[in-house]
Amino acid sequence: ELISSLRSKLRTLWEERQLLLSEARACAERGEELEAAVRDVCKPNEFERYMMFIGDLEKVVSLLLCLSSRLARVQNALRRINGETDAEEKQSLNERHKLLSRQREDAKDLKENLDRRERVVSGILAKYLTDEQLQGYRCFVQTKTSLLIEQKDLEERIKFFEEQLETLEKSIP
């Protein structure tokens, strides 16, 4: 029964993934349309600034999500430490925790810098785009960020259930 339930949950998550991928494709198309509009109206250096911001948006958000996920796994492992855990493993986990915490703080600094750059880009675009186009740009940036977060969360949940299913199937003779 449990295996059947896990398989059903995984099917549902895989369907969600397909819907999310479809949304991501639609967002990418909107991004291409927006890019063309920005290229048409902005000066080359302003367009370059816009393109750098959009490219860095995905990188920085993905980095933050990845580091947060890895840090959470290490914190969970640290919580499972008991008297039987050897000192070397404890030390390794503590070092990884410190490293990932520092890296996440650095990534947060990158995100703050990215937010400042977004305000600059938004100011540039406000000079050239209509209110409707500017609203479309803001919506695109929000949607792109939200989709990245949703995709990461969904992939984590799929991975978790796949591992649960695999462990359960191996435990049954």
Automatic annotation (TrEMBL):
It comes from the Eukaryota. Its main location: cytoplasm. It comes from Centropus unirufus. The gene is Shroom1_0. GO terms for molecular function: actin filament binding. This is SHRM1 protein. Belongs to the shroom family. Keywords: Coiled coil, Cytoplasm, Cytoskeleton. InterPro entries: ASD2_dom, Shroom_fam. Residues 1-173 form the ASD2 domain. Residues 71-120, 144-171 form a coiled coil. It holds the Pfam family ASD2. One of its GO terms (biological process) is actin filament organization.
